[in-house]
Amino acid sequence: MKLDDSLSWPMDRAGEAMATLAKAAHLSPTAKGPTTLGVEDTARTLGLQADRLVVSFAEVEARVCNAAPALLRIGPSDAPRIIALIQSNLERARIVTPDHSVRAVSLDAVRDALFVDAEHTHGGPVDALLERIPLPPRRRALARRALLREHVGARLRDAGWTIRLSPSAPFLRQLRSAGVLRTLRAMILAHAVSLVLSLFAWWVIGQSVLAGHLDRGWLAAWALLLLTSIPIRVLTIWWQETANIGAGLLLKERILFGVLQLDPEEVRRQGMGELVGRIIEIDALEELAMRGGFVSLAAFMELAITIFVLALGPAGIASVLLFVAWLAFAGLLVRRLTVQWLAWSRARIAMTNDTVERMLGHRTRIAQEPPGDWHVEEDGALAAYSEHARRVDRTSALIAGLLPRGWLLLGLAALGPALVAQSASTKELAVGIGGVLLARNALMRMTAGLTSLVAAFAAWRQAAPLFHAAARSHPAPATDPRTTDHERIEPARADGAVLDVRHVAFRYRPHGRAALQNVTLRICHRDRVLVEGPSGGGKSTLGSLLAGLRTPESGLLLFGGLDRASWGAGSWRRRIAAAPQFHENHTLSDTFAFNLLMGRRWPPQGDDLLEAEAICRELGLGPLLGRMPGGLMQRVGETGWQLSHGERSRLYMARALLQCAEVVILDESFASLDPETKTLALRCALKRAPSLVVIAHP
Ligand SMILES: Nc1ncnc2c1ncn2[C@@H]1O[C@H](COP(=O)(O)OP(=O)(O)OP(=O)(O)O)[C@@H](O)[C@H]1O
């Protein structure tokens, strides 16, 4: 089955398709997105995020179902079109068409449209093979699919973009959009109903027992009420878990997004270990906040009913006041627990920081530190941590043990005068005792809930900076349509200047020493610039400013006549590629090819792999590719093939050269190469980079 062209959008209306889909999928209230921008930029202007979707033929159905809402790139790779997918199951997909109507199409047709190239190459031979086998049409179709899967199952395809609310959007909006608020409302309502039902059930049975005639009708009503409360209780738990999972997922997503928004300097100042510690706290936060939140909410609902029942008892307002005073005492204990828990979690983060630091410096310590000094101070830190834990345990035990039992004694004591004087009726006494027991149950629930909430609050204090970092605003994308084209290199301005640096100054700390002062420089198309200077002179700092990794304190920094804010951070970096100094760069644990092409696009398209290999050979990495069993697809990085210093330097160089940027900055990239390889590498950089800045020592 083929998808009609009237169902899909032409590529030049991708921005419009994005905005229309956002409205149809209730992600954004407006469909008036800018039509000239590409998908990712339109998404950003609508406060959404478009993530690349890469699928293999083998898993396409499952991935497409989970990806909605999504913009799927269909058709042959040289003339792609777009399907705006609102929703899908394994059979049918709902899409929004260019005339803004919503239509249903079969998922098979979507899959065929996505893999039309593979179909084109392998469909013919498979059909020819099946021609020779007599099969009914349905079995033939199944056999065809299975054979194609066998041929191209692992083939990856850049299938378009999944669209979602940006993790930087207000959290409440995210909760609403994900349906978590709706589930929470249903859960609260169900809990309230089940509470009222159970109270009513006990009232029914109490009434008839106290009246002295337990007839069948009352018993049946009581049983019916209890039976009704069972499915409601099951629904409450189901909704609670659903909301828990949904909110937890959003929280994790937002915090991990926040980590990526941190400035590298900030990460450095905080310490990697501290950051890891904060991230670890997310699990506790997610689990405890939700569990504690639900339990406390339920407890507060019970408390409200309890106060009402207590007021109806023989001690009346006196027992209500006593209960409120007991709650105030509980508040003091919880406050003490909070202070202790905060100190405990600070100690935990400090220990995590220390452990990560020790792990990072492990090889240096083994090589250079006397073994006797390896574990100094560890015992002291552990003892202090245990002491914090003991304090928290003591107060938690006091809260869990004393609050409910203490209240039971106090509440019954408050009923004492009425019992002794026999001034209250049996019914009033039953209500009074029932109220005291209800209050004890609510207190038990409340102590469990609040203890979890205190733990969640301590975890929140650690994770909050990352949560807030997610909302940091980034320079808006340029509305200049040129920025939508990822691969085009900007032509130089009429005066020949590509990069214009005027009176730029920079310092790392607000009142610290200036690392750069009054720097003025002009780089034209095809310029080859060598930046030399003494160690600590500010060469790398200048490189990072040009590459947009840092922002100047003052002065002007222009590319093609526009500053970084006008281009947008992403567009700027696409135009100026840098291979930072060795210790600032990283080989990711993935294939060699991914490490080469990550700055360009992944999965590779067209001639990407061929070009990557050609650059590697020009840089003298041919013998390495021959030695690695997987060639370009060899896994490298911390857990893979260990590259030598010089090999890594050239990998970083190739990564920058492959980005198709107008300006390439190489920071000390040649320092670790032997003279022969250095000549090769320099020749490659001079040939490949449109404009080149090389930072080196004299
Ligand atoms: N993150 C930082 N925080 C504070 N100061 C820094 C930071 N990074 C660099 N500096 C300081 O800024 C100055 C310039 O450093 P930069 O790395 O730019 O020098 P460089 O010329 O590249 O040196 P080298 O040739 O040794 O690599 C140095 O004095 C350095 O100590």
What does this structure look like?
The chain is of the alpha+beta class and 698 residues long. The protein is 58% helix and 14% strand. It has 23 helices and 17 strands. It has helices spanning 14-24, 39-45, 60-67, 107-114, 116-131, 137-152, 171-177, 180-210, 216-261, 264-270, 272-312, 316-360, 362-368, 378-421, 426-469, 539-546, 564-567, 569-575, 592-597, 608-618, 622-627, 645-657, 675-688, and strands at 9-10, 48-56, 70-74, 81-88, 92-96, 102-106, 156-165, 497-507, 514-524, 528-531, 554-559, 562-563, 576-579, 590-591, 635-636, 663-667, 691-695. The strands form four sheets. Strands 1, 2, 3, 4, 5, 6 and 7 form a seven-stranded antiparallel β-sheet that branches. Helix 11 (272-312) runs antiparallel to helix 15, helix 12 (316-360) packs antiparallel against helix 14 (378-421) and helix 12 runs parallel beside helix 15 (426-469). It is globular. Residues 475-489 have low confidence and may be disordered. The site of adenosine-5'-triphosphate has 12 residues, from helix 10 and helix 16.
